[in-house]
Amino acid sequence: MGRLLNYLLLLLLLVLLVVVLQVNLTCAGDSTVDPGNNNYIETVPENRANHKPYGQNGFFQQSPPTGRFSDGRVIVDFIAEYAKLPLIPPFLEPSAEYVNGVNFGSGGAGILSETNQGLV
Predict the structure, then answer these.
(1) Residues 6+ apart with CB under 8 A from 74
(2) Quick one: average pLDDT of 16-33?
(3) CA spacing 20 to 30 A to 17: which of 1, 31, 45, 57?
(4) Closest Cα partner for 83 from 27, 39, 42?
(5) Helix intervals (H) in the chain
(6) Which residue has the higher pLDDT, 50 or 43?
(7) What average pLDDT score do residues 7-14 get?
(8) Structural domain count of the chain
(9) How far apart are CA 21 and CA 23, in angstroms?
(10) In angstroms, rounded to a whole number, what is the distance separating the alpha carbons of residues 44 and 100?
């Protein structure tokens, strides 16, 4: 009887572990992964993609350009879809919830001063 109880307790713990596990995706990079963070930065208007031709006839066809430097989704969106996650929100989006991950990508990002002289 004690052994059966131990197995049932172990099974319960495994079920709880599987239920609690949450997959999330965190990304950092430049314009190749930017989901629209630059829309929320007032100091870099020349590094935004919230105008045509960006998003003109791609995945987000029914909405205005989203700030992605593509005609639709960026590579992080495809990775999220493969992982069965919703679109990963930009870090700077005010109403974003980061339960499934966060995207820190920003067009024009660089680690060296020479990358964007005058903006670093």
Answers:
(1) 32, 33, 34, 35, 68, 105
(2) 78
(3) 1
(4) 27
(5) 2-20, 75-82
(6) 50
(7) 81
(8) 1
(9) 7
(10) 28
